[in-house]
Write a structure and sequence with these properties.
The complex is a heterotrimer of chains A (about 375), B (about 300) and C (about 100). Chain B has about 300 residues and is an alpha/beta fold. Chain B contains twelve helices and ten strands. In chain C, the strands form two sheets. A two-stranded antiparallel sheet of chain C has the order 2-5. Chain C has a two-stranded antiparallel ribbon with strand order 3-4. Classes of the chains: A alpha/beta (about 375), B alpha/beta (about 300), C mainly beta (about 100). The interface between A and C is medium-sized, with 24 and 13 residues. Bound molecules: thiamine diphosphate, iron/sulfur cluster and magnesium ion.
Chain lengths: ~375, ~300, ~100
Amino acid sequence: MVEKRAFISGNEAVAAGVCLARPHVIAAYPITPQTTVIERLAEMVEDESLRAEYLHVESEHSALSACIGASAVGARTFTATSSQGLLYMAECLHYASGGRFPVVMMNANRSVALPWNIYGDQRDSLSLLDCGWIQAYAEDAQESLDMILHAYAIAEHPDVLTPMMINLDGFVITHTYELVTIPAQSDADLFLAPFQTSNKMDFDSPMSLGFTAGPAYNQAFKQLQHLAMLSASRVIREVEEKFGQLFKRNYSGLLETLYCDDAEYIIVTLGSVAGTLRPVIERLRALGERVGLVRIRYMRPFPLEEIRKALAGAKAVGVLEKDISFGFEGTVYTNVNSALMSANLMRPRLRNFIGGLGGKNISAQDVEMMFSRLKSSDEGERVEFI
Amino acid sequence: MRNQAEKKTSIRDLSDRELFYGHKACPGCGGSLALRLALKVLGERSYAVVPAGCMSAVGFIFPQMAFGCNAIISTFAGTASMLSGVAAGARALGIKDFHAVGFAGDGGTADIGIQALSGAIDRHDKIIYICYDNEAYMNTGVQKSGLTPIGARTTTSPVGQRLRGSVNRKKPMFEIVAAHGIDYAATASVGYPLDYLRKLEHARHVEGTSYIHVFSPCPVGWGYETADTIAVAKNAVDCGLWYLAEFSEGRFALNHNPAELTSVRDYLMGQSRFRHLQEEDINAILAQREAFWTRIHREWRV
Amino acid sequence: MNFPERNRSFKPPKELKDYPVGTAFPAGHLVDTNAAWRSLRPVIDAIKCSNCLICWLLCPDGVIHRNSEGGLEIDYDFCKGCGICSKECRQKAIRMESEGE
Ligand SMILES: Cc1ncc(C[n+]2csc(CCOP(=O)(O)OP(=O)(O)O)c2C)c(N)n1
Ligand code: SF4
Ligand SMILES: [Mg+2]
């Protein structure tokens, strides 16, 4: 078997990645723009290119609940959802992370009703940042596929044992066709070992799972969850290293930087909009402007040190996000600001740009405008809608 | 298969092994008896899924674990979906000869968990779903559920000038699951333990979804002496407010068809949750009982 | 044993490393008893007992055990004194005695 090149959508890339990871159980419920992932997987199970149990559940709550149940007997699981579906799962999200069940999920980032809207913003996943899941944000189809493979290796790592959510911007990634390299199954098997865990029900030594822990013990379990999430930072680097050696595609851990070494004006963002920023930045650099980009790949664990380092020399930084915590500011901004405030550094001027809500276009002109705002010394609105 | 299951279960055949032991249920709890007996029949190779509710609250308090077999607490709504996942995961891993069994309360079954249960039955997943019905949300302090009977006082169906307890009737869960074309369904009562045990034995061998709805009195929520749990559970059947039935291969069967029903009034007045009922309320309950039995005799042809 | 033996040497976790990973702990792990819940104690009269096992069957806590001689024994560590056994015994072979003060 050799690797293949295929012209596929982000969703199909995810399905291909899931197939390579050989999950035992897939349980999912349809919602735009996630649907084509679970359709492809259903076809793979039908033609036996993927040998997995496929559960046609009647809701997202049940999808994740079933994955937790399967994980609780030691099975590898996958589910996918978006927006309303992710929120419908909310209780189970905390359940999976608290129980340390390394379920892997794709979330197609989509606006949350009301008003109804099926297009991409990131309010769905960012409003659930505190649910104890590792949260990754892909930029394109190839990274989506690769992140699925990474996800199992990271989530199932004994030091981590934490579920992982891979976010793809709705439509912009999920439905855009790109040339994608699909690894050979034999290579994927070399990369990803079968799931082994002692956190399961077992007939050789029966276990009680999902128990109650009162005030005397509860916090210790939460502390362990926190430590596991912190360990994920290291494990992510190790996993990407191993992946790079095998597949010759290299990733840069919790965030990716572009020209941050000497950039004075930096935009921090996440997801597919980085693709809009890149050519603008190249153009501005060609004109001699010292601009740069930070693309956050992981919101949890948060790239605390990496952010500090990347932004250390900047005069002004804009955080561009498709999200807002109403009445305050964007959640990504809050996180970036906190990372900078808690370091004893010269803090750059910070601005929060909110855009792309409900799929509103963010254009190259918008990007140029944001950079020019960063250069101006006027205070302006703390939160600027673009 | 059928013969095996039909064989009368005798007490002496039952396992000595206790798989629900040292739990913190109230003294005389009917639900804990229903659970204990089920695990005697289903045995050690069980994965028990227990949602939020009394039985999970009393069975898994770190570091005191009362289940002797593999067990997990599910979300309140997630009994059936987690059971499906457990069964699918075990199947995919090549694990053989196991039971995925759920123990959910009436609220966890007829209200918040009914959607997941419906999905599992629809898929004919090989799971055994046991609803221990204590007729209210006991774990949170006796609130009204969809299986609280009419007239019962609960903390959210109080008795006052205007209302006299619950105004809703019990949802017909047994018929609801039967309408799905479920592979096996039964009602039972801890007051008729041998009938219950036989149904569990039958469910063991069903290739598909089994649902057993076991009437399980709660001395705390119903207001009677702890020693009376079995008697109350038996009385409910004898007075015709509960019934012992089965649904298998598309047909209903009545396992207990009393020629004469005992006094509903005595049943009701033995429990403080009903003691406020007035003559007209009791007459209304009697009329409902009459209508129920007439209907099932006609519709089920039993 | 047909029922779990109490882990009398259990030491509650002190440091994080003493805790299980995930919410997973050995099944049938008992550290304390339920004896203090009881105000009445069932006592079986072996002479009257016909060994029908109805009490054994109906005990919600499963604390009545068959011993090797075929007789019945009550595990008073876990009996809560509900009185179901006494009430259901057709031979009236189980009396409920006060636990005293
Ligand atoms: C989603 C959700 N809503 C509400 C609760 C609160 N809750 C926990 S147990 C319970 C009552 C359970 O009632 P039932 O299912 O009848 O079981 P019982 O306690 O009576 O045995 C409730 C309402 C919860 N745990 N989860
Ligand atoms: S409240 Fe009722 S159902 Fe709950 S443990 Fe006590 S007796 Fe059992
Ligand atoms: Mg209840």
